[in-house]
Design a protein that fits this description.
Length: 408
Amino acid sequence: MNATKKQTLLDSFQNTASACWAVVYYLVILLNLVFICFFPKPVFAEVVINEFLPKSSQEWVEFYNKGPLTEDLSNYFFDDDNDFNSDSGSSPKFKLAGILAPGTTCYWNVNSYLNDNGDTPTLFYSDGNLVDSYSYTTTVTDKSYSRIPDGGDWQSDQEPSKSAVECLSLVPSLTPTLTPTLTPPTPTLTPRPTSTPTLTPTPLPKAIYKINKPKDQNGVELSGVKIYVDDLYIHHQDNEILTFCSGCHCDDDKNVDCELGTHIIRLEKEGYKDWQETKTFNIGDNFEANPILIAISPQPTSTSVPPSATPTLTPKLSPSPFFTPTPEEITGEVLGQEEEATSPDKFYLSKEKLDLADESKNIDLSSPNKEIKEKSHSILPWIFIVIGAGFIVISLISFFKNQQENQT
């Protein structure tokens, strides 16, 4: 019986262990599929990010071809985050250009592209695969992050050693390829039209300046904002992108030149202070502006209110050596006006005005006395109660003393 139970337990344990191993096996397979499907596969390319200057008046990134073959940089994209499908960083990714020979370097201007407080310069292949990436969290002005030696390990706070060659200068010029015309071996020659080669134009070297929707100091978007370049009006604001290059114009009528060099961009709106920025545009620059216009506060106007005159009553009594005046015969002035009585040397107040004056005087004088009387009436009963209680206590004390003397 005991042997049968042991064999049953052993079989149950073996079945449970087999089930657990099966779960682990399929879980590992599932995780591998997730990594393969959702995470970018690094490509071991020969072009790498070799050096970059993230905090300076002229910021740039240097690329290095460490392989044995020439690389076409138009097959690469540069970004400030490691997600190819989403531009979640501060700036969108852009495509490189140029032909980079083995063991050589070139630079690309990236002003206002990398953040001063940390970013992730990343190089992608055109199919979205990650080629090279490096993350930093701090910067020092005019100090670079660099691979030492070229293509080696990263070092921070280095003296910049930018390449002398710009990547855009390595774009090859197109040479037309002619197809020869064959002449048939006959005495009579029949001319045939020669084919005309189709040339693909080289992308124009330029600089980009993107003006985002302007806002006020409270973050509210503004409309109807005018844009000026070098104090010349081009048009109203509409999430504008200006292109600066040789022969470029900023307006549709081609009256405002947008050549490479230094320009003043100004935004203007009625009721707001002007916003302006001075920029120097070089080939490959990519700037982005977020203008904020400050509202002009209206000046308050003060209106003076003349003080209202308060009429006063100034009674004047006319002395008479042999006569005591009655209320009807008191003379005076009411509100600066005099009334002439029958007697030429006396002025009289009307009985109604004297009665009003007497009532106001009675009210002013009697009210404090009335309050004192009411308080005294409320305190007197308590005074008599305290005195009576005192007499009772004294009487009781005398009574108890006499009782003690009689007992002794």
